[in-house]
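Q: How would the structure tokens look for this protein?
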Amino acid sequence: MRTGNMRIAEVSTEAIKHNVETVKALTHGNLIAVVKANGYGHGALIAAEAALAGGATQIGVSDLEEAIKLREGGIAAPILCWLHGSGIDFREALKHRIEIGVSHLEQLESVAVAQRQLVDDGGEVGSAPATVQLKLDTGLSRNGAAPAEWEQLFALAAELERQGILRVRGMFTHLANAGRDEDFSQAAEFDRAVYLAQQHGLDPELLHVAASAATLTRPELHYNTVRVGVLCYGLSPFADKTSAQLGLRPAMRLKSEIVALRQVSAGTGVSYGFNWRAHSDTILGLVPVGYADGMPRALNNSGATVLIRGRRRQIVGRIGMDQCIIDLGGDTTDVQIGDEVVLFGDPARGEPPVEDWADRLGTINYEVVASLGERPVRIATTAW
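A: Here is the predicted structure in token form.
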């Protein structure tokens, strides 16, 4: 039944599966597929299911709310979340068997308190120790336990393990991606942390340092696990390498349709402010996608194009909250209301790459896909 969906983000589960398999073949270890920020805009549940089908051994998200949604959506695989608000009550996380990324001593103490409360309450949930992974700051100066805290953190974690309160399943850090020397300097700090943790009696199963960029460029930093985000979605983390060059397939096609056509004469102003006027007699197509949907207003008159009936057509005039306008050309007779409009997708099929928007906006492909609004309906497909 036609529901009137005018904005659709088709997400290829086959592409995500292929991308995860490709990365797994390079690393030969555990792979944590990161589906935070609604699967980088692709739909967290769609992405998680496809990544697990491709061989991911765990799912990673930023916060507890994201993790619980995945559990409620049927994801049974291990889920790690690592960014928490102050004063958080971890009981809900532990009830859902979610692994807690612990970034400082107080968080570890809070996990222990929550686990003890569940044990006191009785029932199946409190019968098994809480599972945590220790997140360390090795030089990014961001989330993670600072080196000055490591001794206390590891000592308390080891004591809580001995008490059966929790299990330290992993240790991890984030790289700054500031260059080879900086990456290996951070890795040396991480190695020091692992040694120190072992001295306290900890024996973490998972060690992960490399995210998408380092997974491809720093095989020495794979340890036994990699933590991959943007690669799962077939996007390149590098400005000088395309997805195709990395053997990846972009997993999203953002599309809409022509909902109105208008013939205008040369000089006609278009959209708010008339900052674009028709250079000659032309036909304009109205597309119901705007900045509320994730098409940045800054694309205004940037030269960005869409694909309609196999031809690239330019977005013109100021982008509105709900719509944009396409210059179809004065001799266009083949475009009709209802025709598909592809805003970005896989350049291997002739579609504009998401990097086209990113380059024109002076940003990265991560931001473009993660900024998609709620209105584009995410639809999983196996067709490509």
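Residues 180-199 form the longest helix (20 residues).

The domain at 252-381 is CATH 2.40.37.10 (Lyase, Ornithine Decarboxylase; Chain A, domain 1).

Upvote if useful.
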